[in-house]
Give the backbone structure.
Amino acid sequence: MGPVPRPDDDRVALYLATLQDELRNVRPRVRERVVRDVARRIADERDEGRDVRAVLEEVGDPLDIAADVRERHGVVERSLWREIAAVALLLFGGVVIPIGGWFGGVYLLWSSPVWTRAEKVLGTAVIPFGALGPLLLVGRQPLYALLLLLPAASAARLMVSAARAASP
């Protein structure tokens, strides 16, 4: 027979699950330690007969705890939208907004901390003006469509790197 459920177990479980989720980008060992320490503190306070609501309020908002842990460990919350926009503009920006759109993609590429210098050079050099050049050349000779493979391959490489950087 397992432990007897106590009142407010669901509230504590939700609190700890929220903390766990907010720490998803932190190294697993750090995340487990923080959640374990907070769970132990809550359990100790409950064992002393304290009200769960008061204990959780005293421990603090799980979002604030997670933000503090991420800051102390140098974890930056990232969204892939900026990187997706960079790759899309590198690939198609020159077609949609001739030349200017591509320069916007280059700016987003170089200002992002996600990619290495080599990947940034690759994105800039292999996709000069993106699909614009190959699409302009296709009118002269359909085989120039094969040139679209270079910017597409480079864009795919950049997206794989961005996805890896975004995963915990």
Q: What stands out?
A: DSSP finds nine helices and no strands in the chain.
